[in-house]
Amino acid sequence: MSDIVIDTHNISRVYNPTTIPIYAIRNVHLHIKRGEFTALVGPSGSGKTTLLNLIGGLDKPDEGQIFINGTDITTLSPGKLIDFRLHNIGFVFQSFNLIPVLTARENAEFIMLLQGKSKAERGTRMKQLFNQIDLEDKMDSRPGELSGGQQQRVAVARALASKPQFVLADEPTANLDSKSASNLLDIMDKLNREENITFLFSTHDQRVIDRARRVITLVDGQVATDTNVIDTSAPH
Amino acid sequence: MWLLGLAWKNMWRNKTRTAITMAAIFFAVILSVLTSSLKDGIFDNLIKNVVSFYTGYVQVHKAGYWDEQVLDNGMKYDKSLDSRILAVSQVTGVSPRLETFGLIATDINTKGCMVVGIDPDREDKVTGLKSKVTKGTCIVPGDKKVMLSEGLALRMKAGIGDTVYLIGQGYHGATSAGKFEVKGLVRFGSPELNNQLLYLSLEDARELYSAEDLATSAVISLSNPGNPGLTADALKQQLGNEYEIMSWEAMLPDVKQHIETDSNSMKYIQGILYMLVSFGIFGTLLMMMVERKYELGMLVAIGMKKSRLCALMAIESVLTVLGGCALGILASIPVVYYFNQKPLRLGGEIASIYERFGFEAVFPTSISPDNFISQGIIVMVIGLILSMYPVYKVLTIDPVTSMKR
Ligand SMILES: Nc1ncnc2c1ncn2[C@@H]1O[C@H](COP(=O)(O)OP(=O)(O)OP(=O)(O)O)[C@@H](O)[C@H]1O
Ligand SMILES: [Mg+2]
């Protein structure tokens, strides 16, 4: 298997094709390699959410193909696609990621229950993940008892619980204060460096953009710039 | 299973909503059990009244008697016919009667009346005669005494111990006349009966009308009063075409129709009730789906199969519906029992309609378990059908649109 986990082939997504067509995404070619830490930026309405939904298999392109680790997800049936997401893609949404009636641990574990993982396996994984997100003492708290930043960290733990190919995060820090945002980025950054987890996240926040090692800018649904940031802090 | 646990937790996430749904189901069960028990109670009560009334559940006559009710159309009623009737399994008692129209006279006036010859003990067993005696005592076979209905006594200005004369036409045209002492008074709810009826013993009646062994009808009591048609059929088999067997429904078509009208209007009330409940339950389900739209979309997004999500929604609804039904059935038991002990009593115009038929307008609820079970099941089925709504919504959910805010 190649090192490219996300490979979009000339994808387009058009809304209202019959009336006034809106090209939310237009001819986007994109390769993302394993271990990248990429920010998707661009003005409001530029198509960031649309692109993430397409890559995440939540939406289908009107043109083009999307390969995830070699599988063309545009050809999968809706049922297969749900299963594909479960096993291959981790999601962190802007907010309300968690089920309010479950504890932090149960929320993160949920995805492993869906995968049918054993209790022992879940136990070890949860311990490890809550250690990594630095919330071991909050495992049994309900989402309502956690701060917004803590909730997003639990969402990251859930996204990783399934051992996905990569994690997609649509404005994960949008509802957080700057301290919580930088804290969440610290954790994502650490997971990326230490576990080689691939992250693709959209953001408006310059401080978050500054943490990325690759920045893709969308304008009007097209890739305007794609920059690899010279990483001075990298350990190797 | 963890899905069950999650469903249980979800049920209590919005306690008010679950409580509203459960309460809607709960009250629906109570009210529909109550209306249904009341309907059955009214029915039972009316039928019971029909029996103690006069007609009995089923009557045996010689074929053709009902259309022309004269002594000459009477039947020979002997031990053999008696035991053939009693041999039918649902028959618990039979009372032979000799009924005819005659004139009653005192020294001061004369009126037409309905003369009924009976065996007092057997008539008591079948139609509760002795409980209708309001003054004096009940006649005994061969005592040459009569009992008058209260209205007749009033019209005749006759009381206990007075002498009355009975004049009429006997069997095969013989003239008949006799002198009797008034031994007791009886009361009927129905004015028609209360103003005309006169009882004497069957022996005395046969002698008066020169009708040895004759009876015009045999009134039958049943072990299964709910289904007189069945017994009528069994009797028809047993006795053959020589006799006509009639159930009270055939003899009193207006009462039957009245019962049917009543039970139909109860059905309308129940129908409206079911509709109200449906709207109530549906409203809460609608509210729930709006509230949880984002979350359900997110669950599909992160990889929860729709079949599993459907199962989750179904378990939640089923638990809510079953809970409401179970609580409703439990709570309706004391309510129905209360109205059985302290029956509803109607007044005014409705009461007078009932009294015209000779019934008290009192309606105890039926405590038959059928009502609890059938109404519980009906409401449960309604609830379960409505529970399909969230399941359907989940099937059609699209994560992108449902997570859009
Ligand atoms: N369901 C839809 N129907 C029609 N147009 C849509 C729909 N969803 C998105 N669009 C349009 O597609 C374009 C891209 O939207 P998108 O949400 O991807 O932008 P975005 O970059 O995520 O913006 P933001 O930064 O505000 O989140 C916009 O012009 C938007 O109006
Ligand atoms: Mg967006």
Textual characterization of the structure:
The complex is a heterodimer of chains A (236) and B (405). Chain A is α/β, with parallel strands linked by helices and 236 residues long. Helices cover 35% and strands 27% of the residues of chain A. Chain A has a 6-stranded mixed sheet, sandwiched between helices. In chain A, a hairpin with a 6-residue loop joins strand 1 and strand 2. In chain A, helix 3 runs parallel beside helix 5 and helix 5 packs parallel to helix 6. With 405 residues, chain B is an alpha+beta fold. Helices cover 55% and strands 20% of the residues of chain B. Chain B has 16 helices and 14 strands. Classes of the chains: A alpha/beta (236), B alpha+beta (405). At the A-B interface, helix 2 and helix 3 of A face helix 1 and helix 11 of B. The complex binds adenosine-5'-triphosphate and magnesium ion. The site of magnesium ion has 3 residues of chain A, from helix 1.
Shape of chain B: elongated
Uncertain runs of chain B with pLDDT below 50, 5 residues or more?
Answer: none
Number of strands of chain A: 10
Label the structural class of chain A. alpha/beta
Whole-number average pLDDT of chain A?
A: 92
Sheet with the most strands, sense and barrel status of chain B: 6 strands, mixed, barrel
In DSSP terms, counting alpha (H) and pi (I) runs of 4 or more, how many helices of chain B?
A: 16
Q: How far apart are the first and last residues' alpha carbons of chain A, in Å?
A: 24 Å
* Name of the CATH homologous superfamily of chain A: P-loop containing nucleotide triphosphate hydrolases
Whole-number average pLDDT of chain B? 88
Strand order of the largest sheet of chain A: 6-7-8-3-9-10
Broad shape of chain A = globular
Largest interface chains and counts: A-B, 26 and 21 residues
What is the CA-based Rg of chain B, rounded? Answer: 31 Å
Number of helices of chain A: 7
Helix percent of chain A reads 25-40%
